[in-house]
Design goal:
Strand 2 and strand 3 form a beta hairpin. The strands form four sheets. The chain has a five-stranded antiparallel sheet, with no helix packed on it. It folds into three domains: 41 residues, no CATH class; 118 residues, no CATH class; 213 residues, MetI-like fold. Helix content is 51%, strand content 14%. With 402 residues, it is an alpha+beta fold. The radius of gyration is 32 Å and the shape is elongated.
């Protein structure tokens, strides 16, 4: 027991609890977003994602069929149908077999009064239980069953051109589907936007890495006037907001004729990413063992040979770490793409395309949850492919080589 208490560290316990809280704080919203991406559009607008695993009550409006479908038998005219049938945008009628009626009322049915439901005053939506036959003053009857089927009868022919309205409260058991993902992936232009995003992201990741690696070597192992002050200027550029340079840079692009082109956005992302890349790589490359560099110089190797044969292979962790940062930044970018690229099918990137799918007034906001996971598939693949270098790259320069 004493050995256990001796090894017990309050600081270690607190650090682990803090780490656990951070993990939970990041995981819960992501889980909620994923669950929401698998839910029905209407349920998303009325209930939170945390209710997805329980039966939800939902207020809905329904109508009977019109008079053109009535049948007559022994002097009784009948209209039948199903109140749970839903007609989608393509005109197809669908029915959720797990959904059921909890209560109904209001509309053309006698109501005992109004009540507040979903924040609105509704007429008698809990007046009748499923299976109840409601008799109207003119001799008509209406019966609605738990499965949504109804029978509407009248002693005289129906003459209504449009069905009669009523209201129902439905039981909605947990239900998940890939429809939101299908809507996103099947939308026109999404596949092209994936290709366009790769066209932007890959060069915009490789170019700054190549330039920054050469610059970091020069700042670390080459002697030239003003080296230290030039490095200070590069570090200072990290804190400059890129928004300040968008308009001046676009005006320059218009003058030289590379506005709304891929080379233009490659150069823009290269310029925005270089300060951080040079700073990160310089710390790592500058921390390489001096003996290795000096031995190569004694053997007659040039700076280019030292860089290509020694520095680059030893700097893979730092290069991979920056590649992750730059790839994620460019892939998820919307602002720079909107400024330096067009919106035609040959140039629009994924983030801009998904933004258009939401509609000008975000009327299709339910696909936002699925769009989020569609857009992070590639970054996740890149991150997990290079994650073994990530921590080593983050610690770049923290320990000097021997």
């Amino acid at each position: 027991m004493s050995a256990v208490l001796k090894n017990f560290s309050l600081g270690a316990l607190l650090s682990r609890l803090a780490l656990l809280m951070i993990v939970v704080a990041w995981t819960i919203p992501t889980l909620g977003l994923f669950v929401s991406s698998l839910r029905d559009r209407d349920l998303l607008s009325t209930t939170g994602w945390w209710t997805a695993f329980q039966t939800n009550l939902r207020f809905e409006q329904a109508r009977t069929n019109a008079a053109d479908v009535q049948t007559e038998s022994d002097g009784v005219y009948t209209i039948t149908g199903n109140a749970l049938e839903v007609t989608n945008d393509d005109g197809e009628v669908t029915l959720n077999p797990t959904k059921s009626i909890r209560s109904f009322g209001g509309g053309f049915l006698p109501a005992s009064g109004t009540e507040t439901y979903a924040g609105n005053e509704q007429p008698g939506i809990r007046d009748y239980a499923p299976g109840t036959t409601v008799t109207l003053e003119n001799g008509e009857t209406f019966t609605l069953n738990a499965d949504g089927t109804y029978t509407y009868t009248s002693p005289v022919p129906f003459d209504m051109e449009r069905g009669r309205r009523f209201f129902v409260v439905t039981n909605n058991p947990p239900s998940f589907s890939l429809r939101n993902y299908q809507d996103v992936l099947s939308a026109e232009g999404v596949a092209d936007s994936f290709i366009n995003t790769f066209t932007v992201t890959i060069p915009a990741t490789i170019i700054p890495i190549a330039v920054a690696a050469f610059a970091a070597y020069a700042f670390s192992w080459m002697e030239f006037p003003g080296r230290r002050w030039m490095f200070y200027v590069v570090v200072a550029l990290i804190v400059v907001p890129l928004q300040m340079s968008l308009i001046p840079l676009l005006r320059i692009y218009n003058e030289i004729g590379i506005a709304k082109t891929y080379p233009g956005i490659w150069l823009a992302h290269t310029g925005f990413g270089l300060p951080m890349a040079i700073y990160l790589l310089r710390n790592y490359i500058g921390g390489l063992p001096r003996e290795i560099i000096e031995s190569a110089k004694i053997d007659g190797a040039s700076h280019f040979q030292i860089f290509m044969r020694l520095v680059l292979p030893l700097s893979v962790p730092a290069l991979a770490s920056f590649a992750i940062f730059q790839f994620l930044w460019v892939w998820n970018d919307l602002l720079v793409a909107l400024v330096f690229l067009g919106k035609d099918a040959e140039q629009i990137v994924l983030t801009s395309k998904l933004r258009e799918l939401l509609g000008s007034r975000a009327e299709n906001w339910e696909i936002l949850t699925a769009s989020a996971f569609v857009s992070i598939i590639v970054p996740l693949v890149v991150f997990f492919s290079l994650q073994r270098y990530f921590v080593r790259g983050l610690l770049a320069g923290s320990v000097k080589g021997g």
